[in-house]
Amino acid sequence: MVFSFKQFTIEQDRCAMKVGTDGVLLGAWTSLERNPQTLLDIGAGTGLIALMLAQRSTAEQIDAIEIDEDAYEQCVENFENSPWADRLFCFHSSLDEFAEEMEGETYDLIVSNPPFFLPNETELIPENRKKARFYDSLPFEHLVSYASQLLSEKGELAVVIPFAEEEKLIASAQAKKLFPYRITRVRGTKTAPIKRCLIQFSFVEQNLEEQELILETSRHDYTEEYKELVKDFYLKL
Fold it and tell me: Do residues 35 and 216 make contact, with C-beta atoms less than 8 angstroms apart?
């Protein structure tokens, strides 16, 4: 299935994790106020988030890493077929291998839609999708540890995670001197429980901006706030 956005197209038949709301939210929500020139997408999948940030930014270098070979190859193709092919590059690598290889190089912004299937949820999940989304394949502690190593002094980390994991991730990040300054908690509808959390961290402690985003008023009837956030990407909403 091909997923077409306003300025780029995603091929995803070989990717375990398809285009989804989580990735679109992170790609549209992440603040670029500090005009980052070097970006890294950890666990790129189809390349969706990196492509969204390429559309939104003037960043000269947008790197991505993907451990699954099929997803990596498809990500490369999606990058090459985009208007920003000269700024996008995907590495076939695990995070620890990448961090070791790139020692000394830093990024102004790191984004990640990290794995978050919990162990008791994985029994009936296909193996490649499990690898892409199983928590143990990239624990939050490892994510923030390597991110803190790969970030520049003024660099920032932006993630989307399950709401249930918010406190755990923040504690792991603060242990590495990364402090949240933006949090948006996401509900499907006004009466639905909070399911997701978008968090942006920096090395500078500052006032925390907390918001809530509701996606729909009813099935397929999207809120004005959500439509405003993603209006530059979706063809129809």
Answer: no
Give 113-156 pLDDT, tens digit per residue: 986 644 444 444 455 544 444 444 568 888 999 999 999 999 99
| Domain ranges within the chain, ordered by starting residue | 2-230
Rounded-to-integer distance, Cα 170 and Cα 182, Å? 12
> Nearest-CA neighbor of 74 among 6, 3, 10, 1?
10
| Distance from C-alpha of 216 to C-alpha of 55, rounded to nearest angstrom | 25
Q: Is 70 helix (H, G, I), strand (E, B) or coil?
A: helix
Of 144, 175, 177, which Cα lies nearest the Cα of 159? 144
Phi, psi of 174 (to 5 degrees): -65, -30
Q: Dihedral sign for Cα 111, 99, 106, 151, please.
A: positive
Q: Determine the Cα–Cα distance for residues 94 and 207; give it in Å rounded to an integer.
A: 34
Read off the pTM: 0.90
Phi, psi of 36 (to 5 degrees): -65, 140
* Residue range 2-230 in CATH 3.40.50.150: yes
Specify the DSSP class assigned to residue 4. E
Where helices occur in the chain by DSSP H, the ranges are 21-29, 48-56, 69-80, 95-101, 127-133, 140-150, 166-174, 224-230
β-pairing verdict for 2-4 and 9-11: antiparallel
